Amino acid sequence: MDFNTxxxxxxxxxxxxxxxxxxxxxxxxxxxxxxxxRREAFWNRKFTPVKCENVADFDVFMGxxxxxxxxxx
Length: 73
Fold this sequence. Notes:
The protein is mostly helical. The chain has three helices and no strands.
């Protein structure tokens, strides 16, 4: 089971823009453990991944980033 095989018929079907390469996104998300934090050559030099211990931490980090972007603009 993976993202692409479960998307059809789900509440997310039709949610993503038509031009998105969902296979490529799935390949990125398939990384796990230390490989998920390994810097890739195509990343923006200012990007640094932040490890979250749980979903609640992720929610807080994401909320702060969204607020920062709003404040910045």
